[in-house]
TrEMBL record:
InterPro entries: Dimeric_a/b-barrel, DUF1330. This is DUF1330 domain-containing protein. Residues 9-90 form the DUF1330 domain. It comes from the Bacteria.
Amino acid sequence: MAHEIHVGVRVEDEAGYQAYREAMYPILQKYQGDFVFDLSVDKLLKSPLQEVVNRVFIIRFSDQEERDAFFSDPEYLAVKHKYFEASVGYSAILRAYDI
């Protein structure tokens, strides 16, 4: 059963975030993950979050185990530390579910 997560982030450094995406994408694919949607948000009209987000995306994995393996992969964690943490001011998983 496929597994999807919807994520909202506030990107504060576009170049750093692009470097993160380029570095993490091959790792994501290794775990049978891919982006279903990737949206840039210029105006947030309603949100249950305390923070404002300017990017929303959906990632689909083949199953939840692949998702968990991706997010705990040491290579991914190094990329996250190097690029994501410096370029994103806020992130939240909005929803996760099996389809």
